[in-house]
Amino acid sequence: xxSRILTVEVPLRWGDMDAYHHINNVQxxxxxxxxxxxxxxxxxxxxxxxxxEVPIPLFTRLPRGTQALIAENHIKYRAPLxxxxxxxxxxxxxxxxTAASLAIEYRIYDARSGQRCVxxxxxxxxxxxxxxxxxxxxxxxxxxxxxxxxxD
Length: 152
Fold this sequence. Notes:
- With about 150 residues, the protein is of the alpha+beta class.
- It contains two helices and six strands; from the N terminus they run βαβββββα.
- Strands 1, 2, 3, 4, 5 and 6 form a six-stranded antiparallel β-sheet that branches.
């Protein structure tokens, strides 16, 4: 199951740049996180999460006390992402849903040249801290993703 591809812009920070004028490799994970929050919302424990307006409010609908935890990150650097005051363009989508996790895919582009610089993925699992248990993907969350995929 693949949901629709969302495109978000993530500003690059001066401090993200390395000595070669490229975005440092460790900052790519931050860009992935920024894109995830812009597309799906902050987790419910985040300040102001309930007011967040996002294209697919997947995370904001999690039960209170639930954390979206990263189980895996995979990053393939295809080309250097040069520092620019123009935000990076990130395509993001949910590629796979299992009983208790989501696989999210990313493509990060240099917005000025259009070059694809990074292919990446994240596997998220949901954990309810107060109850001390893994949270399964709800039928409502599945419908939300299916509806967003069919609304293209």
